[in-house]
Design brief:
By secondary structure, the chain is mainly α.
Length: 463
């Protein structure tokens, strides 16, 4: 058999082999590396893989670990965990509940707005879903909310941190797309390509994030108008209102200032994402101190949680690096290039197929797992077809937000199930997220049809 064809067959089998082992419940990072090494051995035995290709892996991985852009990841995670430990989310939720309690659907609107604010100040999905599940879900159920609507709103709002900056997913994608775009442009003879930065993706993701929040709010208002029994008003007793204006100022102003300091400095070109992340981390500690919540115990818990989450992400990145090397060296990238380039419908059809593949992978894989596997394989082909890298990155981000919601392995569903009342059926959570998954598909379609929603602000910022 032709060695090139044999290598492509092995590459395709390896891809599906990884998916199969993951569905059996094996750890992601070790599955990626282990299956890749297994197929590398098969490729070596039939003469379609050279083991010397592994020689660049140590330097490549050290490059990831010392990359100044990626240093922003643990800093933003620290910022998010610290804000969660300082109970800022709790105060926001309680205050927003008082603000909107007099209108039908008010608690749902409060959860969505708080989810958006926490996304813009933390970006840690697990912490947001758990916090809102502990505080808002009991209040919504006591108020007579439909359990499906209550759980759906909480899960969907908690995942906004995947697309609203500062998103750790966008940081990784920005770094990956920057390198891939440079290589593609140089291969096409453009030796001075326009750079793609994390700041560009942050700017490009702002309007899509607002679009998603708007769709969620419209859905809750629609439910309030058509099915008022599913989301009744929850008026606050006069004795509990207190000085509402003061509560609003205390709850809203500090996190808003932190958001402006972090995102404003990035979009304004004052600071890099890493520098802004350090400001955010220090700012989160200051806010915790002002609330008398900063202690050695909380700081220790925050550091441990940050190290755990960061280590998990980078271990997955190591396994994905092994997978990428084996897949590409056996000709898998050529197979993908031929498949996407020859699709009827051209470039848009190729992007649509990649989005569809990522959407279905979201049922069984985590966001980071998908981008570490799929982006290195498909992005070079799409960028060679002149797809805008910022548009592609944001479109992928919105798409992969659904991976937190789609069963059976949607992590937001697991987070909420862990803190929900025992008498709340899991089926209610699964049914509750379906309208929000559909809303995210609508958002993807809007961004697909109107790419200017993504590209306008980065171009404006760039002048």
């Amino acid at each position: 058999m032709d060695p090139v064809l044999l290598g492509e067959i092995l590459a395709a089998l390896m891809f599906f082999g990884v998916i199969g082992f993951l569905m059996l419940g094996f750890p992601v990072a070790f599955t990626l590396a282990g299956v890749s090494l297994l197929f590398a051995g098969v490729g070596l035995s039939v003469g379609v893989f050279d083991p010397s290709n592994f020689g660049a892996l140590p330097n490549r991985y050290i490059g990831f670990m010392t990359n100044e852009v990626l240093v922003a990841v643990p800093l933003f995670i620290f910022m998010g965990v610290m804000l969660e430990r300082s109970q800022i989310a709790e105060q926001l939720l309680l205050t927003m509940g008082k603000m909107f309690g007099n209108m039908r659907g008010g608690l749902g609107i409060s959860v969505i707005l708080v989810g958006a604010m926490l996304a813009a100040s933390t970006g840690v999905v697990g912490a947001t879903v758990v916090t809102m599940g502990l505080i808002s879900l009991p209040a919504m159920l006591r108020a007579g909310y439909d359990p499906k609507l209550a759980t759906g709103v909480i899960c969907a709002s908690g995942t906004l941190g995947q697309i609203i900056p500062p998103s750790t997913v966008l940081i990784f994608m920005g770094d990956m797309l920057s390198g891939i775009n440079s290589q593609v442009q140089m291969a096409k003879g453009n030796f001075a390509p326009s750079p793609v930065s994390v700041g560009d993706l942050f700017a490009g993701a702002l309007l899509p994030g607002i679009l998603l929040v708007s769709l969620y709010l419209i859905f809750v208002l629609f439910k309030a108008a058509t099915d008022p029994a599913s989301c009744p008003a929850t008026p606050v007793p006069p004795e509990e209102k207190g000085d509402l204006l003061r509560e609003i100022l205390v709850a809203l102003v500090p996190p808003m200032l932190l958001i402006l300091a972090v995102l404003g400095s990035i979009l304004g070109g004052i600071a890099t994402p890493t520098e802004a992340a350090s400001v955010g981390a220090v700012g989160a500690m200051i806010l915790a101190a002002l609330r008398w919540r900063l202690s050695f115990t909380i700081l220790r818990e925050t550091v441990i949680a940050t190290a755990t989450i960061t280590s998990m992400v980078f271990v997955i990145l190591l396994g994905a690096s092994v997978f990428s090397v084996v897949f590409r060296m056996m000709g898998g990238d050529n197979l993908v290039h031929e498949f996407l380039s020859n699709l009827p419908g051209g470039t848009l059809a190729a992007v649509a197929v990649v989005m569809l593949i990522m959407f279905f992978l979201g049922f069984i894989l985590d966001t980071f797992e998908i981008i570490f596997i799929v982006i290195p394989i498909t992005a070079p082909v799409l960028l060679a077809l002149d797809v805008d890298p910022v548009w592609l990155g944001v479109l992928v981000g919105v798409n992969l937000q659904t991976s937190f919601l789609t069963p059976p392995f949607g992590f937001a569903l697991f987070y909420l199930r862990g803190v929900a009342p025992a008498d709340l059926p899991t089926s209610a959570i699964y049914k509750g997220i379906l309208p929000f998954v559909l809303l995210q598909i609508v958002a993807i379609a809007i961004l697909f049809i109107f790419p200017g929603i993504v590209t306008w602000l980065p171009r404006l910022v760039a002048g």
